[in-house]
Amino acid sequence: MQAPVRIAVTGAAGNISYALLFRIAAGDLLGGEQPVILQLLEIPPAMEALRGVVMELEDCAFPLLAGITTSDDAGAAFADADYALLVGSKPRGPGMERGDLLKDNGAIFSGQGRALNDHAARSVKVLVVGNPANTNAFIAAANAPDLDRSQFSAMMRLDHNRATAHLAQKLGIHHADIRKMAVWGNHSATQYPDISHALAKGERARDMVESQWLEEHFIPAIQQRGAAVIKARGASSAASAAAAAIDQMRDWALGTPPDDWISMAVCSDGSYDIEPGLFYSFPVTCDGGRYHIVRDLDISDFSRRRMRITERELQEEREAVKGLVQVVQS
Ligand code: NAX
Which band of pLDDT confidence, cut at 50, 70 and 90, is reported for residue 324? Predict the structure, then answer.
């Protein structure tokens, strides 16, 4: 057996974690040979609920689960962590403005960025799930000066998986037969799910669908899918979000399949003329534990307009938290 790796999860008593932790402990993230230690972070009012989750994890007697720690202190939860999944965040309360939500979560993620900087393994990979995920990743990375920004990403895999499944349904094929889906930008209703480069059984998917379906059905359906799940289920996506978190972190750590890519929000290096420094979703390939933004894709005017809209939203979000990031950095 290999030495255990340490996986920190925040918001560990929440809905997504209730699906996520059991799959990590079962070996779905890093494979059936890799023991894991779960380091769980919660806020004090949720520690009792977390105790119940830990009891259930123990009751599963997972062969790969080598230990569990719980804490309400980010430094303790991130100590020597090889992977960190930042799921916990403050939900939008009644009458709360989007700007307030950005600021409240900004405070959480700046503190967690500092704690990762000071306590995590130097090679830690950090996946931000908690919303607003892209800007939270931007804040956490900005507060971790000793870590590289390429060690942070925000989750876009749920959007990517939704888009892949939706296109496959339209074409009447299995979703495994779709490759090279791309979702650009922010994890929000401005995201741009893009089938321009997608292949369906190796053929150009764009040639198989009508423009009207694309513009009036596909793009809005993916942008609004989270809201549709809430409307139907009375609660936000949890199991599918956990599955996407596993998919994104696993592919980042172990590599993307040959001849395919995934969508991942990472620190922009200026590719596709997206402002450097924003945490923007690009198509990426991964190998050796690193991601590489896919280069030189042809971008139509139709796509460019949509990529700009979601970039502008990220710029606005960054403006809303600017003071906080500057204060923390100074
Ligand atoms: P829940 O409200 O069920 O759980 C969140 C948990 O985080 C709670 O147990 C809470 O006590 C904890 N928490 C709050 N502040 C914390 C802090 N400072 N440190 C540690 N833990 C803290 O939400 P859940 O349904 O699990 O969703 C979690 C987050 O994922 C939300 O922000 C949600 O909006 C976001 N999502 C992101 C998605 C994405 O694709 N990026 C999709 C699914 C989901 O909507």
Answer: low
